[in-house]
């Protein structure tokens, strides 16, 4: 899934403006320019593909989102960013940011119209070298983001 689509979806869920997105990035130590923020949300020109934003920017955004939603903690110091960003990493960071348990995530995905078993969901949150690890597909991430918007948009 495109990294800018992830940020757009989270922006919709939070009902956040450009300034708030910039603040989220700053919380993680990234200094965004107005042009970068504008580029994330601009629509591509007719017949032209838009270049996807970097994994680095997305990693900073997701880490900043955790600080934005939960606050910074001395107990959990900021870790160096990890790239490339996978769908599994996006789901893990959103789980932390929104303080979700696996049952909450299953309900959110079901709310969006997709069924996933507890064992399938559990496999998405395993470490990559675990024998039961499964990569999260774009479809699962889209349903998760859609369900997050349905759940948190008006709260």
Backbone shape? globular
Characterize the quaternary organization of these chains. Answer: single chain
Relative helix content: 55-70%
**Overall structural domain count:** 2
- Helix tally equals 8
Radius of gyration: 16 Å
What letter string, H or E per element, gives the SSE order? HHHHHHHH
How far is it from the N-terminal to the C-terminal residue, by CA? Answer: 26 Å
What's the overall average pLDDT, rounded?
89
Q: Structural class per helix/strand content?
A: mainly alpha
Strand content bin: under 5%
List low-pLDDT spans: none
Let me know the largest β-sheet. Answer: none
Give the tally of β-strands: 0
Describe the SSE topology:
Layout: H1 3-14, H2 18-27, H3 34-41, H4 55-70, H5 87-97, H6 102-111, H7 118-124, H8 138-152
Helix pairs in contact: 1-8, 2-4, 4-5, 6-8
Key phrases:
single chain; 155 residues; mainly alpha; 2 domains; 8 helices; 57% helix; globular
Describe this entry's structure for a reader.
- The chain has helices at residues 3-14, 18-27, 34-41, 55-70, 87-97, 102-111, 118-124, 138-152.
- It has 155 residues and is mainly α.
- It has 2 domains: 1-85, no CATH class; 87-155.
- The radius of gyration is 16 Å and the shape is globular.
- The model has no long low-confidence stretch (mean pLDDT 89).
């Amino acid at each position: 899934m495109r990294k800018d689509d992830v940020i757009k979806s989270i922006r919709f869920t939070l009902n956040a403006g450009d300034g708030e997105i910039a603040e989220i990035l700053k919380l993680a130590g990234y200094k965004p320019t107005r042009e970068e923020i504008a580029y994330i949300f601009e629509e591509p020109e007719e017949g032209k593909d838009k270049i996807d934003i970097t994994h680095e920017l997305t990693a900073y955004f997701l880490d900043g989102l955790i600080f934005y939603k939960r606050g910074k903690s001395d107990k959990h110091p900021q870790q160096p960013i990890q790239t490339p960003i996978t769908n599994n990493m996006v789901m893990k960071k959103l789980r932390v940011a929104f303080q979700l348990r696996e049952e909450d995530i299953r309900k959110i995905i079901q709310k969006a119209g997709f069924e996933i078993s507890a064992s399938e969901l559990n496999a998405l949150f395993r470490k990559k070298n675990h024998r039961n690890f499964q990569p999260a597909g774009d479809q699962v991430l889209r349903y998760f983001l859609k369900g997050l918007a349905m759940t948190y948009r008006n709260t």
